[in-house]
Amino acid sequence: MSSVLFEEPGPKTRARHRTWAVLGSIVILAFLALVILKLWTEGAITPDKWSFLTMPSILLGLFEALLSTLFAAAIAIVLSVVFGLIFAAGRLSRVAVIRWPSILVIEFFRAVPLLLLIFFIFLVYSDVLGALGSLVISLMLYNGSVLAEVFRAGILAVPKGQAEAGYAIGMNRGQVLRLIQLPQAIRTMLPAIISQCVVALKDTALGFTIAYPGFVREGELIFTSTLYNNPIAVGIVLAAVFIAINYSLSRLAVYLEGRQRAKMAGQQGMDQTASTTEATDANTGA
Question: What global pTM score does this model have?
């Protein structure tokens, strides 16, 4: 099917596009080869720089640090979801005393840089919260504010007829929001929610700035030692682990989005079939 925005490219245009794609790939691969060659000649990625991967104590430390990072991310994600739900409901409230403070909190913490927020909470409340608490609270405030907007958009996207049907059977506004609008909004916005959870997981890497014993902090301790002066090798390992975890979560979001679309398409097909059947029965009766 041809696009309505531009004409379908002809054989010459497609051949030209393939040629440029091949040339671009060659240039990128050549650049990467030069970078790898430079790092090799400088001794940054030689086999001895990867010897830390053969040390059981180093691998155990990295594993424990990864668990600490995932633990902090899990707590932050749960708190962010709760925070987002509460303040999304507050922003949608018809009571001005509840609505305006909710708007102020959401907009403020969305605008404040996360690193600055982590530093501030750690410097002010480190005696009470510690490094873990400071990191988790900072992630909750930032990501929870973003999720509040996600929830609000999802709730507003629910057809108004759903809420009106709830009001018609005697539900109040809170019941309509909790029992009708919110479940539908969460199903619709689930891919966006998971994507924000991926952001929260990546942001836990900022915990190394306040000495939280996470994955990045452990990597920093490895390459700053006199025995393993290998920041490039350690950075590649850390990046590979984060990429694998985040890619898995991203694929989960894509899978859930595909299921949601298929479910919606199936529901629309059933509704259309039911409408056609009713129309046929009406014509037959007439």
Answer: 0.74
